[in-house]
Specification:
Layout: H1 6-10, E1 12-13, H2 14-20, H3 26-34, E2 38-40, E3 43-44, E4 50-51, E5 58-60, E6 63-64, E7 73-78, E8 106-107, E9 116-122, H4 125-132, E10 140-146, H5 152-160, E11 163-164, E12 167-168, E13 173-178, E14 181-186, H6 193-200, E15 205-213, E16 226-228, H7 231-241
Parallel strand pairs: 9-15
Antiparallel strand pairs: 1-4, 2-3, 2-5, 5-6, 7-9, 7-16, 8-9, 10-14, 10-15, 11-12, 13-14
Helix pairs in contact: 2-3
Length: 254
Amino acid sequence: MNGDSPIEHEGERLQKVLARGGIGSRRTCEDLIAAGRVTVNGEVAVLGRRVDVDHDEVALDGTVVSVNPTFVYRLLNKPAGVVTTAADTHGRPIVTELVPGDPLVHPVGRLDMETEGLLLLTNDGTLTHRLTHPSFGVPKEYLAEVQGSPSRSALRTLREGVELDDGRTAPAKVALRSENLLRITIHEGRNRQVRRMCEAVGHPVVRLVRTRIGTLRDPELSPGEWRDLTLDELRALEREASGATGTGKGRAGR
Ligand code: URA
């Protein structure tokens, strides 16, 4: 390191970083900073602030926004028979083989080997934490084909909470789509949760597909296909993962 280059040491200008992140033009971003709507590491930023995108946490209206251009966000439609891990010692097919290997990404949460559907893979650790930690309450929606046809009382139990060996499940949204097809939305991410919930009410899962992660859906994506998130999708997901959408916590602001 040499001590002559404060720019290198102190990072890039905040408005440039925000504009590159798709928040708005540089001018708009300057206005947002001047209005006190942008924080860096929890402190209101002033014009002229520089940031290190590798280490500083930037937020707009309380929502952490990813401003690191090296971060990627791949949305995969995971097929059955693939393990949700970045490396498998048993030589089984793994989800990271279905997306480009550079940069290295990790799955956000996990789907069981036989579960299909949407899985996000990224190298953004902050968003990963926010999407998987139950305290942020990001909803995940599943379609579960089950054995038999759940009664009203079974549906009520699924909605109100099921006693599992690791404790009672939090309230869930549950709708009967057809005789043996349930749409279940949960905010927790316990191991094999949907399968164990359905089993506990006497209707083991035959097929399980995740159809939504927070604001993210994509009915057009075929099993085994992936695509990058759009900036709009990323921003919406970040808002949701800050607790700002639909939960009454925080502020959306944008
Ligand atoms: N619940 C399950 O039971 N399995 C999954 O893969 C995801 C949620």
